[in-house]
Automatic annotation (TrEMBL):
Highest taxon of the lineage: Bacteria
Lineage per the UniProt record: Bacteria, Bacillati, Bacillota, Clostridia, Halanaerobiales
One of the Pfam families matching this protein, by short name: MTHFR
Xref: PANTHER family: METHYLENETETRAHYDROFOLATE REDUCTASE (PTHR45754), METHYLENETETRAHYDROFOLATE REDUCTASE (NADPH) (PTHR45754:SF3)
Enzyme class: oxidoreductase
Transmembrane segment boundaries: none
Pathway membership, UniProt: One-carbon metabolism; tetrahydrofolate interconversion; Amino-acid biosynthesis; L-methionine biosynthesis via de novo pathway
UniProt protein name: Methylenetetrahydrofolate reductase
Native species: Halanaerobium saccharolyticum subsp. saccharolyticum DSM 6643
Length: 298
């Protein structure tokens, strides 16, 4: 099923992100995690491509297929185009088609810290364009409520986002953020620019100190004072930090749902315990909004 159809049916979509295990460990290592993630009933699961190192790239297609076939959950395969040419992209697209994958998150990927970019694609909109002209996938793309790290201004970023959406994007997934007001401001500006596809809010429950440095490196997200207070207060108490991080994410999600967000995309970091705690807290609210019978989370 194309994920855009899920957005058409539901007021609030709830999705999860996982990353494949490294290629030097058995893929079955992630099965227990998937078992537990399936139990919390996501609308779909997305699978990263190359994030955290190239050794995971060739697993995205396989894991997407496993999620779909073995766990019966719709899959969104991430795909980056930086340093790629049309031939290599076509090869991956054919493989995804053969595995019956229907949805792709079309990304540019990060520029290498050292070395030049030598591929045939400079930006994600070129990958979106290529897929739409040659294949029949549902296509999602990334957006950045606080602006992309390379961008000069949010307005400029939005101009490029409009170009990307107009190339054939069904819906957007946002970078993580910790201050909902920044997301609302971005959403208003996007609407003004004529960007009218659904925007899923990316939520990252921060449950340990190590994550904070990584978030700054990846997104340079703004940390509100109340968030910093949690980090400072519980930095030496891992369980308290985990619980406060989960509570903070839940508070963000409830506020987003109450402000008519199109969907919540949870960066699970392959941690089913955290995902389950969050779904337990917001699952019945989501079901209520979607007019579904409330399901017991197991
Ligand atoms: P683009 O949309 O191409 O934007 C990149 C930059 O170029 C922006 O600053 C934009 O303003 C600018 N730009 C766009 N179009 C133009 C134009 N025509 N002219 C000039 N400038 C332009 N990375 C991975 O490696 N693997 C993953 O699995 C992965 N998953 C992600 C999932 C989500 C939800 C998000 C938000 C990010 C993910 N990333 C992943 C990170 C992503 O690859 C990086 O943020 C990357 O730097 C930008 O990718 P993009 O697709 O947003 O690029």
């Amino acid at each position: 099923m194309k994920i855009k159809n899920i957005f058409e049916k539901k007021e609030v979509v709830f999705s999860l992100e996982v990353f494949p295990p490294r290629s030097d460990v058995p893929i079955e290592n992630i099965y227990q995690t998937l078992e537990e993630l399936k139990d919390i009933n996501p609308d779909y699961i997305s699978i990263t491509y190359g994030a955290g190192g190239g050794v995971r790239k060739n697993r995205t297609c396989k894991l997407s297929s496993i999620i779909k076939e073995k766990y019966d959950v719709e899959a969104l395969a991430h795909l980056t185009c930086i340093n790629s040419n049309q031939k290599s992209i076509n090869k991956i697209l054919t493989r995804l088609e053969e595995k019956n994958i229907k949805n792709i998150l079309a990304l540019r990927g990060d520029k290498p810290v050292a070395g030049e970019v030598i591929g045939e694609y400079n930006y994600a909109y070129e990958l979106v364009d290529h897929i739409k002209k040659n294949n029949d996938f549902g296509v999602a793309a990334a957006c950045y409520p606080e602006g992309h790290l390379e961008t000069e201004s949010i307005d400029q970023d939005l101009e490029y986002l409009k170009q990307k959406v107009d190339s054939g994007v069904d819906y957007l997934i946002s970078q993580m953020f910790f201050d909902n007001s920044l997301f609302y401001k971005f959403r208003r500006k996007a609407q003004k620019k004529g960007i009218d596809v659904p925007i899923e809010a990316g939520i990252m429950p921060v449950i340990n100190k190590k994550q904070v440095a990584r978030i700054i490196e990846l997104s340079d997200a703004y940390f509100p004072a109340k968030f910093k207070k949690i980090l400072n207060k519980y930095e030496d108490n891992p369980e308290a930090l985990r619980d406060a991080g989960i509570a903070y994410a839940v508070e963000q999600i409830v506020d987003l749902i109450s402000s008519d967000v199109d969907g919540i995309h949870l960066y699970t970091m392959n941690n089913p315990y955290v995902a389950r705690r969050i779904k337990e807290a917001v699952g019945s609210l989501i079901n209520h909004i979607n007019g579904q019978e409330i399901q017991k989370v197991v």
